Amino acid sequence: MDYIDFYERVKSLAKISNLTIEYVVNQAGLSLGAYNSYRRRENLPRADEAQKIAQVLGTTVEYLTTGKEPANLHVNLIQDMQAVIDQYRQNKNAIKKD
Fold it and tell me: Which of 5, 11, 59, 67 is 20 to 30 A away from residue 90, measured at CA?
């Protein structure tokens, strides 16, 4: 795996989400300086840091490191979407009763 791909994926996902790299890494508990230090030294963040970055970006470490979506990602997305739909229906029904 090319370390540059990791950083390019982070950059791309941040841009798509209208987030700055600084915001992403700060939300993940890193400083921008630490993040840039990893990048300059051609190293990846520690696994726990990569997990937090992935979480902020709404993706997985697997995607950030390989570019491949995990096999169960679609199942998780469908389950998450169903939960949102169910919550919406409950709220809609509660409003109708008022």
Answer: 59
